[in-house]
């Protein structure tokens, strides 16, 4: 699923378009997707689509608000009284005879239109003799970088002018715009005329850089098949707490952060020890970076151990103490029990943090806790690793030795290995050592969430179902305060120097893909879901990944004015697209191999726009057919063949372990 392409048609469904495959009835590809202009009143005057007979008609959408392409853009119910001059950013709205091309795909020629949120290429594959028109759309928010090149310059002076510079034009010129998208695809637009080329490039750059959350497309997207309120309350924390409360009475649901004054990045309600009152929580919050005091992340029903998460303590150079924080952490341990603090920083980084007001829990104040340092990269080093990997993948001229050297030097697989190893450590402490675990780094919003979420996928079979996995994302990433707006502002191709961007969420998805490859029967969802989540985290028609925390989402009224991605994914006709046909419930903990030969490059993501996946898609379709044939031996046979196709011992089937 590609963001801004097929997730956003009139009925919210993805069209069945294969990567790199030319379909009958016109050039269809997953780079752009056919759209229905009924859903997009912002579109300038273009030819209305009549669908060829070979392409099934999609249900028409209905629009609840009018969004003009010029003049003041009124957001109607999405944000009453707020306007913005999008027209000032669009220097040229329409250009004829634009050629769209992409590696491995046939070129498409048509009329290019720019709207406030989309690029639209309207093409007539059969020419004027055939009225069927194909409209290809791209969400402008998906554009990560714009590169332009102008060529074939020639000057001319129109008749009747005095030769002034204003009357001098460029003739016989053309330009090429390269669009590097956040979902890693690369598109080229050949535009006749230098002025038009420069105007189009400038318009795309300006529109893709609009940083106001409430000006983004989710506030304008209104699919016919969904209601605004759907999906936002599928995974309430109260329901999750009731599952824990049915097994133990040692925890309670606290509303201490109801007004976000205790911690601006926590949700209004959190799960805390029952023996600790709210006043103690407030005092403990003042001792933690950003107010992120220790809260429950996961309760392990097998033995009753728990995993907590927080931010670093503010001990500072004078080793300050907080009795309330010590009491909070002491409450979760019985007399004689021990706990482990997994710090996702190096010992040196933690020591340096103490000089700037941060630090670690001193042994003298937390005698039952043992600190383990497992450094995980975040911020600029991780972003640069991501950028180097994508650059290497796009270099199709590199020799094998050169490619392997670049793959190793970018260190992305090392980051995947480190994340899986740390998550396995947390899971091992709980499952095998039967010890309580506290995970934190510095701020507690990045690598901390990476470890706690991965550990739960390893430990808990319910988190390996489709519904359970989406609930985990809601609880451990979105509500937990991962700053998606900052971390996913740019992808791997931006020419701007990385500021606060970092692909932590992508790293998590990559680790989950490694688990799905090593345990092909144990995850109910498929790779397709992981790709969809990656795309929507960086650019989406849905409001699920907007903003940095729950407080910001409340201020922007995201849940009142945008649609939830979960609502779309949970539609019966959509849900089946993301299921793993080989899934079989596995109640056991899955322990992945983290040996270097077991960690592989996620080709389905990093190569999906570079080479066709037609054969792989056909293979999975055959697997689906065999499984649905209800042959009792089919699924087992398919599973064994799939396991043998995986190259390392860690990929053996669960039944062989």
From TrEMBL:
Superkingdom assignment: Eukaryota
Gene Ontology MF term list: protein phosphatase binding
Residues in Myotubularin phosphatase domain copies: 231-606
Compositional bias annotation for Polar residues: 644-657
A GO BP annotation: phosphatidylinositol dephosphorylation
InterPro entries, per the entry: Myotubularin (IPR030564), Myotubularin-like_Pase_dom (IPR010569), PH-like_dom_sf (IPR011993), Prot-tyrosine_phosphatase-like (IPR029021)
SUPFAM superfamilies in alphabetical order: (Phosphotyrosine protein) phosphatases II (SSF52799), PH domain-like (SSF50729)
Span list, region Disordered: 631-657
A single cellular component GO annotation: cytoplasm
Similarity field: Belongs to the protein-tyrosine phosphatase family. Non-receptor class myotubularin subfamily.
Stated name of the protein: Myotubularin-related protein 9-like
């Amino acid at each position: 699923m590609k963001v801004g392409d097929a997730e956003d048609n009139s009925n919210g469904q993805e069209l069945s378009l294969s990567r790199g495959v030319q379909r009958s009835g016109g050039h269809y590809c997953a780079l752009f997707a056919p759209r229905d202009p009924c859903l997009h009143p912002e579109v300038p005057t273009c030819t209305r689509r009549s669908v060829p007979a070979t392409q099934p008609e999609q249900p028409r959408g209905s629009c609840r608000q009018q969004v003009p392409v010029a003049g003041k853009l009124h957001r109607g119910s999405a944000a009453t009284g707020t306007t913005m001059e999008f027209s000032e950013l669009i220097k040229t709205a329409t250009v004829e005879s634009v050629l769209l091309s992409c590696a491995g795909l046939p070129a498409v020629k048509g009329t290019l239109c720019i709207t406030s949120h989309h690029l639209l290429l309207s093409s007539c594959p059969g020419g004027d003799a055939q009225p069927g028109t194909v409209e290809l759309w791209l969400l402008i928010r998906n554009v990560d970088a714009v590169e332009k090149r102008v060529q074939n310059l020639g000057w001319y002076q129109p008749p009747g002018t005095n030769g002034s510079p204003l009357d001098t034009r460029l003739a016989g010129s053309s330009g090429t715009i390269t669009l590097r998208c956040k979902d890693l695809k690369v598109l080229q637009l050949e535009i006749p005329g230098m002025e038009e080329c420069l105007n189009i490039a400038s318009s795309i750059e300006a529109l893709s850089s609009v940083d106001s959350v409430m000006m983004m497309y989710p506030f304008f997207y209104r699919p016919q098949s969904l209601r605004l309120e759907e999906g936002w309350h599928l995974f309430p924390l109260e329901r999750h707490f009731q599952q824990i409360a049915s097994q133990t009475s040692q925890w309670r649901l606290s509303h201490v952060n109801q007004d976000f004054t205790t911690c601006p990045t926590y949700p209004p309600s959190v799960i805390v020890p029952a023996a600790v009152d709210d006043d103690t929580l407030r005092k403990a919050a003042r001792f933690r970076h950003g107010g992120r005091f220790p809260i429950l992340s996961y309760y392990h029903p097998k033995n009753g151990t728990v995993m907590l998460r927080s931010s670093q303590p503010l001990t500072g150079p004078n080793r300050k103490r907080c009795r309330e924080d010590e009491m909070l952490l002491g409450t979760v341990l019985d007399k004689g029990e021990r706990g482990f603090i997994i710090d996702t920083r190096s010992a040196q980084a933690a020591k340096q943090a103490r000089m700037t007001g941060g630090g670690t829990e001193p042994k003298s104040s937390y005698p039952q806790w043992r600190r383990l340092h497992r450094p995980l990269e975040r911020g600029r080093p991780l972003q640069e690793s991501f950028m180097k990997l994508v650059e290497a993948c796009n270099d199709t001229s590199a020799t094998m030795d050169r490619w392997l050297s670049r793959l190793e030097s970018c260190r992305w697989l090392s980051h995947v290995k480190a994340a899986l190893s740390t998550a396995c450590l947390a899971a091992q402490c709980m499952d095998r050592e039967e010890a309580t675990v506290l995970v934190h780094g510095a701020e507690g919003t990045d690598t901390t969430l990476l470890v706690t979420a991965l550990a739960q996928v390893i430990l808990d079979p319910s988190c390996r179902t489709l519904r359970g996995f989406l609930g985990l994302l809601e609880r451990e990433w979105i509500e937990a305060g991962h700053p998606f707006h900052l971390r996913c502002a740019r992808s791997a191709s931006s020419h701007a120097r990385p500021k606060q961007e970092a692909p932590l969420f992508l790293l998590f998805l990559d680790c989950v893909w490694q688990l799905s490859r090593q345990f092909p029967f144990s995850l109910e969802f498929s790779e397709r879901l992981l790709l969809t989540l990656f795309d929507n985290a960086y650019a989406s028609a849905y409001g699920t990944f907007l903003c940095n925390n729950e407080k910001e989402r409340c201020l922007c009224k995201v849940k009142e004015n945008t649609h939830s991605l979960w609502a779309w994914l949970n539609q019966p006709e959509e849900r089946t697209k993301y299921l793993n046909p080989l899934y079989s419930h596995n109640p056991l903990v899955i322990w992945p191999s983290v040996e270097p030969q077991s960690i592989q490059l996620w080709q389905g993501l990093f190569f999906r726009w570079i080479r066709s996946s037609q054969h792989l898609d056909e293979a999975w379709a055959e697997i689906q057919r065999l499984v649905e044939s209800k042959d009792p031996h089919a699924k087992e046979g398919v599973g064994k063949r799939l396991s043998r196709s995986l190259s390392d011992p860690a990929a053996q089937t669960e039944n062989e372990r």
